[in-house]
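For reproducibility, we list the full input for the nicotinamide-adenine-dinucleotide complex.
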Amino acid sequence: MPEKKIKAAVPAAQAEEKQKSYNAFEIAKRHFDTAAKFLDLDHNIQQQMRLPERELTVNFPVEMRDGDFKMFTGYRVQHSTARGPAKGGIRYHPDVSLDEVRALASWMTWKCAVVNIPYGGAKGGVICNPKTMNRMELENLTRRYTTEIANIIGPQRDIPAPDVYTDKQIMAWMMDTYTMAKGFSVPGVVTGKPLALGGSEGREEATARGCVYVIKKASQNLNIDLRNAKVAVQGFGNAGSIAARLLHDEYDCRIIAVSDSKGAILNENGLDPHRVIEHKQKTGSVVHFSNSQTIQPDELLTLNCDVLVPAALENSITKELAPKIKAKIIAEAANGPTVPDADDIIIKNGKLILPDILANAGGVTVSYFEWVQNNYGYGWKLDKVNSNLKEIMENSFENVLNISRKYKVNMRCAAYILAIKRVHEAIQYRGIYP
Ligand code: NAD
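The corresponding predicted structure, in tokenized form, follows.
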């Protein structure tokens, strides 16, 4: 047998170097600490809530198209199971790090608590560049990663879902790998599956739809008419492109600018999101779309618009950009797009930030519906999914707004106060003190 060469896919040193100057987990703990000060929490429980319950790092080989094996590193972090099974997406990206996954896992805990669904929080990720991998390599990677984390996931334990650069096909491979190991079909082990495998109607657009429901509520509160309102969207993937489409189709907004990892485009008269989606499908990017001008990616964030939807990655809105933000509403479809120092500046300038743990909670809410449907072996119609999602998002918006008025804090702090209260209460009832 010829000797197989094993090489690192993304060298560890390079991955560490890519660790962002803003550490997402430090930011997550900072948001927690800011909100926790408003609550009379038991000190030990507070310490317990800040840190993840369980962290798994896996290093595993994957056979590549040339027959060589490459080593990959992946993580699964379960931040909390106080309110129910852990729940959270899987990210494939070269910049994935343990601290990023810890942050994303903790945000899942607070998010599920904000919308009051019976889950804890988790997240997973693999350091890889899916854009350079073919279908076979992605399948091999997904199946091996699933096997490596199989001991800690499961429909009653921890339920993965799609996140950046993972989709329903990746979920299908995860479900199949887990199912093969068990010897019987386990659709409830992941959500965001294809409909043919027990996925839910409405799941693919749920993150964006949930975000749009809270944008609508916010606009009513601020007396902003969404008809012809100018919208800029950073990140044109699942969350961003669908948010653009829904705001355009259902609320008559004018989508003036969108971006992806390759660049940003602008048309003050409005872009047709359907045609931009088609263009991206054909060419791999939004750039060079007809009747649009290319702008600097950061310029998109500071455009004169009514609604800004950051829907890409963490730490996009920095302290330096914050004073230049002109949007009246910033709806965080992405997780952690605004760094804390930027938060303070934007809020001081009278803008409304709809925080990630509220604004993008629609995805996990419909994931929860999918899991319920899988557990019952029964499928809901799209109308039922969307009307239940609407009710949950609108009520959650009202709950967070009421807390922000009661405690005289911004919407992010209010969302954390609500979430921390609910997790704290669950821990107290269960008696799971340190
Ligand atoms: P996706 O992989 O479908 O899309 C990501 C998009 O962001 C792509 O268009 C990519 O080109 C773009 N992008 C990457 N880097 C960028 C950059 N520097 N500038 C501009 N665009 C860039 O991912 P997604 O599922 O839409 O996730 C986007 C964000 O939404 C993430 O923060 C994710 O955690 C969050 N989120 C997603 C879900 C979900 O259900 N998919 C749920 C909640 C939160």
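Residues 162-165, 207, 234-240, 259-261, 297, 311-313, 333-335, 360, 363 surround nicotinamide-adenine-dinucleotide (CB under 6 Å). The first helix runs from residue 12 to 17. Both points were considered when choosing residues for closer inspection.
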